Amino acid sequence: MRPFIDLVGASGAVYRFRRFEQxxxxxxxxxxxxxxxxxxxxxVLGLGKARTLAHALAxxxxxxxxxxxxxLRLNVVAxxxxxxxxxxxxALPEPFVRYESE
Length: 102
Description:
By secondary structure, the chain is α+β, with helices and mostly antiparallel strands.
């Protein structure tokens, strides 16, 4: 899998995510996506946001979602997290799992 992916929201804005390498999950807020890549390109299996990624990903969301790779987008500002998440969920093709955590 690639080190970075770009996901496009309904507004046309592009959001860059970095592939999570095993290790410590950042304590900052942000978004995360479980992504699978095949001959047809990228497919988002799950998308989430959290005020603290370390807490959100320590639970059930840390497992690979149906063999997807985990990508993170760090964003400390809660208002930006919310608007980006809404923009992305409006644009991504269903089905995908939605995660929201405080």
